[in-house]
Amino acid sequence: MYYSKVKREKYGPCNLCRKEADLTWDHVPPKGGIELSSVEMRTILQTLSGDPNKDKFRISQNGVKYRTLCKDCNNWLGREFDPVLNKFANDVALFVRSPLHLPPVFKIETVPHRLIRAILGHLVAAKSELDDVVFDKQVREFIFDFGLPVPEEINIFYWIYPYPVQVILRDVAMPSKRGGFSNYMFCHLLKYFPVAFLVSTAKEYEGLLELTKYRHAGPDDMVNLQIILSNVPNQHWPEAPDRGNIIFGGQAMVSSVIGSPRK
Description:
The protein is of the alpha+beta class. It contains 6 helices and 14 strands. About 20% of the residues lie in helices and about 30% in strands.
């Protein structure tokens, strides 16, 4: 499979509410937090496995997007949560792009309740296969109810990602500690300039800062989220197989997308 599949038929079940409806395109990451330029889309296997067909790709003229959400869910995500995710990404980008000598640690004010739900909602949208994996079911059960906290099994970690390549990776398993191959975590990745998010069943991962420590915050509670500019991992971390890591996945991983600026 050389080309990533990012759409289903025009009419079908919505990835979030599961209702049968006309399906609309959901940009992942959403419009407003990234420049929607022309991208070359490849599968994760083409990029990480040395696939001889890695030069085969699909072109999207306006960013990575998935035809998987009904109009109501798409508009709801865009109205309730995307403004917070986009502001967070744009605020971090100001620091990353700054020519000034900045401290290695700074803070960004944000609304974690809405930031968390934006990340999770778009990850559920970012899958052409409609199934009932535990993660998708959990997100569907709480994302529409502002009174429910994020389930304890869902943990979100974040770090600076100063690279132009977008990575949307769903439903994979990796060692919960690099170099240790006895315990594994189920996880998903959303990476785009200037920040990356790892959603995992693990309670901690390689010293990354955790967003879901604010899982019980109210819908409009503000916090100052810590950002660390030093010790930035390489572009293919943490998903690339190496001496300390191995990655497993099914069809959702096969069709996961890496979007590179069009040459």
